[in-house]
Amino acid sequence: MSTPLSITDLHTEFNNGSKKPSELIEEILSNIEQSNPEINAYTEVFADEARVQAQELDHKQKAGQELRLLEGVPMSIKDAILIDGKKTTASSLMLEPYTAVYDATVIKKLREAGVIFVGKTNLDEFAMGSSTENSAFGPTKNPVDPARVPGGSSGGSAASVAGSMALASLGSDTGGSIRQPAALTGVVGLKPTYGRVSRFGLIAMASSLDQIGPFTNTSLDAAYLLQAIEGHDELYATSATLTPEQLLDIPKIKEAKVSQMTIGLPKEYFIDGIDPEIRTSIDQVIATYTSLGVTFKEITLPYSQYAIPTYYILMPAEVSSNLARFDGIRYGLSKAEEAENLLDVYKKSRMEGFGDESTRRILLGTYVLSSGYYDAYYSKAKQIQALIRRDFEQAFSEVDAILTPTTPHTAFKLGEKTNDPISMYLEDIFTVATNIAGIPGISIPAPTKGLPIGFQLMTKHFDENSLLTLGNAYEQTVKI
Ligand code: GLN
Known about the structure:
Blueprint: H1 7-15, H2 21-39, E1 42-45, H3 47-62, E2 74-78, H4 105-113, E3 116-121, H5 155-162, E4 168-173, H6 179-185, E5 188-191, E6 211-216, H7 219-229, H8 250-255, E7 262-266, H9 276-291, E8 295-299, H10 307-322, H11 342-353, H12 356-369, H13 374-396, E9 401-405, H14 421-425, H15 432-437, E10 441-446, E11 453-458, H16 464-478
Parallel strand pairs: 2-3, 2-4, 7-8, 7-9
Antiparallel strand pairs: 1-3, 4-6, 5-6, 5-10, 9-11, 10-11
Helix pairs in contact: 2-3, 7-16, 10-12, 10-13
The structure holds glutamine (GLN).
């Protein structure tokens, strides 16, 4: 299989004529045909459309016209992001009959950039989970070892890139759903700063925490894709207007100058509970950065120990509110014909449409928002959120970035945690704090002798330039 590893390599091959866009698409489609029946990364493949688009690019190439950087890049899209005219299910029976009637802003932008959408990828229902086992359409398996999970909730996206069934993908991350599956499958996953990318056309899980971001094989590819999708969107009030310094600066990222940078190691994240294999790997990453002249410093994030409990109050509260719109009337599944009255329509449609994890979180969220408990849980969690943010602000007054493992251990076996929601929730121990604080985070493959391991870098709000500079510098050194 000779699918080029990076967007830059692919671009070079397209423009020097050594590869045709349709050749690449055929390779990708044949990989999908071979691997997808077992891996179940894709829930739908757009083979015919991808072929037509690739052939148009073949003509352009033949006519001697230069292809733009993202033209012909085969991408998969998490099935929580709307593509006009395509089914968008969020891997839920509730939306199984639903077809999108417009493009998400990220899709519109990538379409204009010439990306080829190869298909939609599997996820935990409504993006709730850490293993992609909560999908109504069966679990996705890890291409590195199909007895193991690929992580979640964007497990299909991660598996499509790790299994060479796409060159890149878009996922969404509410508490770790891009970074954790990236780590467990051995690819790069980037969660941008909250507000950097428009969420218009993303099926909302927890609106104050959700962000769309890319899965790629390199940090530089993540930078190219982020540059294509970032920025203010008049259709989405929470999308930010970026200042010139905040806009991605690819030439600067490419220079990879890191010798003046300081990285913080939060002592709370490096205590007991880290698997020795992961610790050894992270130590090697630290050694690589040290050889590049980066200074390391121990820092403290005292409130990080409350990140998981805070997340599991704020997130379900928003989930219960966002999922209220799926009522058997407005979208997707409806049991109206079997119902006796309006209440019965709601009950029957929601009982049948939602899986166990969605139901659990709707109940939890309704509880924490109910009168009498609102102050004890929801208001308290909002206060802790402010303290977690303050921890990071304090840390970033001393360091340029923070480094941690992405996950507490490597990919676990399918079925290992399905009956233990709490142990599944603890999967996100290193990733949720960034969503709570709104800062960006990236997971990059770290050295391993066995299953994939990821290290996570975080920077202050809107400083993806430093984040990706550090990522690219590391990859240049270890030659990914
Ligand atoms: N695994 C986390 C959860 O189950 C995060 C999900 C996400 O980021 N979408 O909520």
